[in-house]
Amino acid sequence: MPIFEHTTTLPFSRQTVWNWHARPGAVRRIMPDWEGIRPVEVGGIKDGAVTSFRMSIGIVPQRWVAKHHSYIEGEQFCDNMIKGPFGRWNHVHKFNEISDFEMQIHDKIDWKLPFHFFTRIGAPIMVMPRVRQMFKHRSRRVLADLKRQQMFADAPRKRILISGSTGLIGTQLGAFLETDGHDVHRLVRPSTRLHADQDPTKIVKWDDRSGEILEGSLEDFDVVIHLAGAGIGDKRWSKKRKELIAESREIPTRNLSTALSKLKSPPSLFMCASAVGYYDNRGDEHLDENSSSGEGFLADICRRWESAADPATAAGIRTVHLRTGIVTTAAGGMLKQILLPAKLGAMGPIGGGRQWQSWISLDDQIYAIHYLMNHDTASGAFNLTAPNPVTQKQFAKALGKVLRRPAFAPTPGFVMKILFGAMGRSLILEGQKVHPNRLVELGYIFEHENLELALRDALGRFT
């Protein structure tokens, strides 16, 4: 019978690591972004709890249903696949104490494919490489999360409200904060559909266009993190789409900041999303938080977006503007969109490839927000970008290296203009060379300064 075993040694107490796994958010944090796994039901790790996911084996969609058993508080939990692509999958997670400051997670999986004959010949090609990737990711993610959380372990846990909580950043941010023991609530519209691993009892429902609170209350939150807004790169920019992009940022932000300013018990911190589009297309100019704003469509949106938070600032609420760059994750955004052509070897310089791309890993995006949240002196604008921006040509080359594909096939700029119009020009053919000066000065240490390493983590292509 095939047995897979994996051991992770962590420089933390067994109780600290156990608590991380037992809290809401842990399942989301250990799921590899590149696998496209979507939780359907998340029931915890105690006996009888059921967890199920939707995933794909090649092009075949699958549903994986697992039931937990043999739970021993602080020591182990097990899950047995009761429906899914394997003939058998029984996973034992053991938490072994080495000392007060060191422990090991030992994973043991007893498995087989639906037909035992295929298990022997299929394991080395179809199963084991994928499983090893997943456990390398899991080990790295748990270690990285705990290191960041232990920096502020002695600080009081916070009651936090997040808008845009089902989006690319908000989903992972909420999960990370939950594993850190914070009380996370979500600010949603009536049409919002929460993910299966998000608590439907911890919501505040509102009309973002009028500012009316429909359910719950904004009172007594320590931190409000506002990330909501229509996707900038999701669709071609028609006149109607541009209006939606602008209005979905300015109007809800102004409504929310005004509401916060009038509360009897307002938050001490309001963190509001923005973007490096604030600087517009600036060629090779070195840009930091002291640089002036640009003049284009995105720059205008970002100025209005940030100004919309003024009521909160005027009311004495510490306000932070998160000027985010290109977030590198296989779960969405630009990287997901270009993966297919990159895997086909068709991802090379676009429009010459000299335009700058200021990127940040999804991990650093989450960790930087957490870092700023825990520094009482942090206010105003912060560039959330890695300290080493690259040109589009360098980005394509690094991605090709990680995927082991050629990355020299050029794409003329006019093709992007034909395909995507103004959006293609602003998001693909133009760029900014942005540096996170204020974040670095505050002492933040990046998880990923190097693009190639960030891409390897994002895609599971570990060396």
Q: How would you explain this protein's 3D organization?
A:
By secondary structure, the protein is α/β, with parallel strands linked by helices. It has two domains: about 5-150, Alpha-D-Glucose-1,6-Bisphosphate, Chain A, domain 4 (2-Layer Sandwich); about 160-460, NAD(P)-binding Rossmann-like Domain (Rossmann fold), CATH 3.40.50.720. The protein is built from 13 helices and 21 strands. It has helices spanning about 15-20, 25-30, 115-150, 170-180, 240-260, 295-305, 310-315, 335-345, 360-375, 390-405, 415-430, 435-440, 450-460; strands at about 5-10, 40, 50-55, 60-70, 75-85, 90-100, 100-110, 160-165, 185-190, 205, 215, 225, 270-275, 285, 320-325, 325-330, 355, 360, 380-385, 390, 435. The strands form five sheets. An eight-stranded mixed sheet has the order 11-10-9-8-12-13-15-19, sandwiched between helices. Strands 1-7-6-5-4-3-2 form a seven-stranded antiparallel sheet. Strands 14-21 form a two-stranded parallel ribbon. α4 (about 170-180) links the parallel β8 (about 160-165) and β9. α5 runs parallel beside α6. It is globular, with a radius of gyration of 23 Å. The mean pLDDT is about 90.
The CATH topology of the largest domain corresponds to Rossmann fold
Radius of gyration: 23 Å
Poorly predicted sequence stretches spanning 5 or more consecutive residues? none
Q: Tell me what the CATH architecture of the largest domain is.
A: 3-Layer(aba) Sandwich
Globular, elongated, flat, extended or rod-shaped: what is the shape?
Answer: globular
Strand order of the largest sheet: 11-10-9-8-12-13-15-19
